[in-house]
Amino acid sequence: MACHILLFALLALASSRVMASDPSQLQxxxxxxxxxxxxxxxxxxxxxxxxxxxxxFSGHDMPGNTxxxxxxxxxxxxxxxxxxxxxxxxxxxxxxxAPYGLxxxxxxPRATEILTVLEGTLYVGFVTTNTNNGNLLFTKMFKKGDxxxxxEGLIHFQFNYGPTPAVAVAALSSQNPGVITIANAVFGxxxxxxxxxxxxxxxxxxxxxxxxxxxxxxxxx
Length: 221
Ligand SMILES: *[C@@H]1O[C@H](CO)[C@@H](O)[C@H](O)[C@H]1NC(C)=O
Fold this sequence. Notes:
With 221 residues, the protein is an alpha+beta fold.
């Protein structure tokens, strides 16, 4: 009997370990200085010095400047704008789109995103990780009042399908979601990725890679 109880306890312990998820990473990397105690990459402010303004941001009604090659602008409100978001696992973004503007394919390595359109019509989509059936694309024509979810880490985009400006608001499940704009990261890294590597990866000639690397990859964030 005691043996059964021990076995049961061991099984319970094992299953609880299986169910425990990876701790979320809140920065790309963290080299700790030897003289500071950090929580999720930030030093904590003493509570008696905290004020309401540490949880406050103003100006999210202001349209972002979409005068760039993409015709879009992301205005982020994360732990860099609101210190009080530290360790809370949530943030916000406003996205403005010029007519036919694009928020280009990108990922948030640390966050799921839920997006709603306040004005205009967007064509939105995301692509799954590699599966037996390839990378599956899920898209939606998306109008004022609609809500769409982009699962954590997956490549996604939004395109303003209309002749008028569009506005969307996104909530993200990280205080610091991070953004990897695919074209910028692949063709506009500093220094550039070897054209031999990219020519092989994309199955094109080095001239095509050199052409792409010569473009200006605007960051709309
Ligand atoms: C918007 O950005 C463009 C390009 O950087 C700049 O020329 C223009 O002055 C900006 N407009 C405003 C209102 O800030």
